[in-house]
């Protein structure tokens, strides 16, 4: 499950640097599993790596690292150099080893966990035994994720008595990997992992192509005068012409729709990212944490007309799949009508190409040649 989360966060561009903290005997297993099952290369950092990089900080120089919880929490040099780094995602396996039995009785592993929780935006604690029958121990363990989730044992016990914790979801492994698709025979988890791998590979190819674009000396080739398209008023071309007022109305309608749903909307129209808005749903208990995100491309029409995507927008829809939304607003000139489509890439898009060329016969060329 950790690999699936890593893939999803990477596909969304939220994670680049990942640290995995495990028991010493599982370090190389994690490295192997991440490589074999998720195509992710991790390096194991131990005392030998630290010695070989004397005077440097190997934690900061590597983006994907596995290390031992017992070693890094007990060896001062290893801990201090780790705490001088910053991570987008920290995963802790067998996290119940980060135990504290009172506010003044914290293990070295727990103290490390407190520091790690402050160094990252995404903190994943993995354990099959989070509760050891000691409410205070459990309350302190939960505080590694959020110190304000439960202020004290009393609030924790009250939530347990009511069997109600709105910001926790319990998911068994069976619920995540069963129910194979009747057409493909693949489980939901397998399908999602395959999709994430394809999206990541496609993005890597795009970035590799971009690296071949270099800036060289400017060479003057010619000049061109750009004029409005002669057919810009025809029914075929007119819908492709951007109307700033109509677009402004459409974005306003889309933004108000998202805000009415309790989402926080960020405009990225000027960034040319293939979508106009990023809409995030805040956690009901922690407004700084978001539990759902939409990448929204807004298209407005004065009346009812065809929708056109640029090549950049089309590629973004292809890459983001179900996270990409098309908000088409018709009748912006009167009563706006909002239509929301998830994963618009699945629609039957038709390429629109119009190239004007001129030709001359070879006889005319020969006759005019000097």
Structure notes:
- With 370 residues, this protein is of the alpha/beta class.
- The protein has two domains: 2-191, Rossmann fold, CATH 3.40.50.10810; 232-370, Trna Endonuclease, Chain: A, domain 1 (3-Layer(aba) Sandwich).
- 37% of the residues lie in helices and 17% in strands.
- The chain has 14 helices and twelve strands.
- The chain has a five-stranded parallel β-sheet with strand order 2-3-1-4-7. It has a five-stranded mixed β-sheet with strand order 8-9-10-11-12, with helices on both faces. Strands 5-6 form a two-stranded antiparallel ribbon.
- A hairpin with a 6-residue loop joins β11 and β12.
- The longest helix is centred in the middle third of the chain and has 24 residues, at 188-211.
- 22% of the residues are buried.
- The mean pLDDT is 81.
Tell me the radius of gyration: 27 Å
Kindly report the name of the CATH homologous superfamily of the largest domain: Tandem AAA-ATPase domain
Q: Ranges with pLDDT <50 over ≥5 residues?
A: none
Major β-sheet strand ordering: 2-3-1-4-7
- Spatial gap, N to C terminus: 74 Å
Tags for this model:
about 375 residues; alpha/beta; Rossmann fold; Trna Endonuclease, Chain: A, domain 1; 2 domains; five-stranded parallel sheet; five-stranded mixed sheet; globular
Write the layout of secondary structure elements.
Layout: H1 2-11, E1 18-22, H2 27-38, E2 43-45, H3 47-52, H4 58-61, E3 64-68, H5 69-74, H6 76-82, E4 89-93, E5 100-102, E6 105-106, H7 108-118, E7 122-126, H8 135-143, H9 153-162, H10 173-177, H11 188-211, H12 244-260, E8 264-267, E9 277-282, E10 290-300, H13 311-320, E11 324-330, E12 337-342, H14 362-368
Parallel strand pairs: 1-3, 1-4, 2-3, 4-7, 10-11
Antiparallel strand pairs: 5-6, 8-9, 9-10, 11-12
């Amino acid at each position: 499950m950790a690999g699936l989360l890593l893939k999803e966060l990477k596909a969304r561009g939220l994670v680049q640097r990942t640290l995995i903290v495990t028991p010493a005997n599982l370090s190389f297993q994690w490295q192997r599993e991440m490589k074999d099952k998720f195509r992710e290369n991790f390096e194991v950092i131990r005392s030998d790596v630290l010695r070989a990089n004397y005077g440097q900080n190997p934690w900061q120089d590597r983006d994907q690292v596995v290390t031992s919880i017992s070693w890094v929490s007990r060896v001062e040099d290893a801990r201090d150099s780790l705490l001088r780094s910053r991570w987008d995602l920290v995963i802790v396996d067998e996290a119940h080893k980060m135990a504290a039995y009172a506010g003044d009785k914290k293990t070295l592993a727990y103290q490390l966990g407190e520091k790690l929780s402050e160094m990252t935006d995404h903190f994943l604690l993995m354990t099959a035994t989070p509760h050891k029958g000691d409410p205070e121990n459990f309350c302190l363990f939960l505080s590694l994720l959020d110190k304000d989730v439960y202020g004290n044992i009393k609030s924790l016990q009250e939530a347990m008595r009511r069997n109600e914790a709105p910001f926790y979801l319990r998911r068994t492994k069976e619920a995540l990997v069963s129910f194979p698709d009747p057409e493909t025979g693949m489980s939901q988890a397998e399908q999602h992992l395959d999709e994430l791998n394809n999206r990541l590979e496609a993005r890597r190819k795009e970035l590799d192509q971009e690296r071949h674009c270099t800036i060289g000396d400017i060479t003057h080739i010619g000049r061109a005068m750009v004029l409005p398209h002669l057919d810009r008023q025809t029914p075929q071309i007119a819908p492709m012409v951007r109307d700033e007022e109509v677009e402004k109305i459409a974005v306003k309608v889309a933004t108000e729709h998202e805000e009415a749903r309790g989402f926080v909307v960020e405009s990225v129209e000027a960034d040319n990212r293939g979508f106009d808005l990023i809409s995030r749903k805040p956690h009901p208990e922690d407004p700084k944490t978001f539990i759902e995100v939409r990448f929204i491309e807004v298209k407005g029409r004065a009346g009812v007309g065809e929708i056109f995507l640029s090549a950049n927008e089309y590629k973004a829809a292809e890459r983001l799949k179900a996270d990409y939304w098309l908000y088409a607003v018709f009748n912006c000139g009167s009563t706006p009508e909002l239509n929301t489509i998830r994963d618009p890439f699945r629609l039957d898009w038709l390429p629109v190409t119009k190239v004007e060329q001129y030709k001359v016969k070879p006889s005319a060329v020969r006759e005019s040649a000097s």
